[in-house]
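User: I'm preparing a small set of examples for a lab meeting where we compare how different chains pack in three dimensions. I only have the primary sequence for this one, and I'd like the structure in token form so I can line it up with the others. Please keep the answer compact; I'll paste it straight into my notes.
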Amino acid sequence: MEKRCKYCKTLFEEPDIFCGNCGKEIAVEKSIMEKRSVQLVVAFYITYLLYAITAYLFYEKSNTIATEITIEAFFIAITVGFCLFDWKAIWALYNTRNIDWKGILFSIIFPFFSAVVVYYGIEALNGLLFEDSYGYFESYIYYKDSIWYGILFIAILPPIFEELAFRGFLFNQLQKFASPNVTIVATAILFALIHFSFISFLWIFPFGLVLGYLRNKYNTLWLGMGVHFIHNLVVLLIEYYYFQQYLLS
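Assistant: Understood. Below is the structure token output for the 249-residue chain.
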């Protein structure tokens, strides 16, 4: 593939390292960009890891709506802060030009399937291994209008900002120095690890692979956000249904 030297505009073949006309090193700019992306990826993961630890400690001390709002506000601020480093490329991901009917159909059907499998499968495994049960809705049952808090903090904010962080910023940076397959797997692993739960890893990792696949295939965040939203909403509504049945029994 032919390109032009940025210094003298002479045509050169892509494998070339030095321009045959002016002698400038062609690969320097790419190398600098890759190094910057590696640094941003490392900074991203360290920051989110510290955030996850801090959030866990905060929830242990005080599980109130004020704590929830504070933690979510920090998450949003961190995500937006990182995205400012690459805002043009991320903004370009909010498009629909590559989306086809197959992608839309899959993005509607798959999260219903994944939600049912996760709710009943992981619930059973959690009870078997730890003799415990914990769900999305449990954190909000003592609040007035608990279902609406649950929808906001589980079904709306995470799909928007987790997709922006992991399939937006992180995906963009990783693909600058890694292959598409490596990028998909790496973002899925980091996405799962940041949730700080062995049980959650069992489903969040494959779930992240699907989200990464959609991001890579269609070059958009909309489908991943839709899958993430429907999945979380369905799990939340299943839990809410059983909670209402418990109250009536």
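A couple of notes for your slides: The radius of gyration is 22 Å. The chain has one domain: 37-248.

User: Perfect, thanks.
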